[in-house]
C-alpha cells in the first residue's frame, strides 16, 4: 500500500532486496515478472503508472515508466510465450470502464 516492493527467496522470510517508495508512495496494484526475460518485472500503481524494472540493467530504480492517461487502469497481465525467442511480450491493461488495451513491450525488455 505504500509503494514498497520486496524481492524474496522462498527459503527466507527476509527480502533479498527492498525498494521503498518505488512508486512515489502510490499503492502497487499489480506486479508481474516478464514471461520471456527473467530479470525484468512490471509494476502497475494506483495512478495508472507502469514501471519496468530490469535488474540486469539497474537494480536500484526502474528503467522506464509509462503513464496511462486515457483512463484509470485497474489491473494488468503480461502476455508472451517463454519457450519462443521471438521477443514478443505484451501487456493487457484492464481499464475502469471494462475496456482491455493490449500494448507490446520494446524488444530490449522482452528478448531472453
Describe the structure.
This is WD repeat-containing protein 60. This protein has 112 residues and is mainly β. The protein has one domain. 0% of the residues lie in helices and 46% in strands. The protein is built from no helices and nine strands. The strands form three sheets. The chain has a four-stranded antiparallel sheet, with no helix packed on it. A hairpin with a 6-residue loop joins strand 1 and strand 2 (15-19). The radius of gyration is 14 Å and the shape is globular.
Query: How many strands?
Result: 9
Separation of termini?
31 Å
C-alpha Rg, in Å? 14 Å
Can you give the mean pLDDT?
91
Task: Tell me the number of structural domains.
Answer: 1
Largest sheet: 4 strands, antiparallel
What amount of the residues lies in strands? over 45%
The ordered string of helix (H) and strand (E) elements is: EEEEEEEEE
**How many helices in DSSP terms?**
0
Shape, per Cα inertia axes? globular
Helix residue percentage = under 10%
Uncertain parts? none
Derived from helix and strand composition plus strand pairing, the structural class reads mainly beta
Query: Strand order, biggest sheet?
Result: 3-4-5-6
InterPro entries: DYNC2I1, WD40_repeat_dom_sf
GO molecular function: dynein heavy chain binding; dynein light chain binding
Protein name: WD repeat-containing protein 60
Organism: Chlamydotis macqueenii
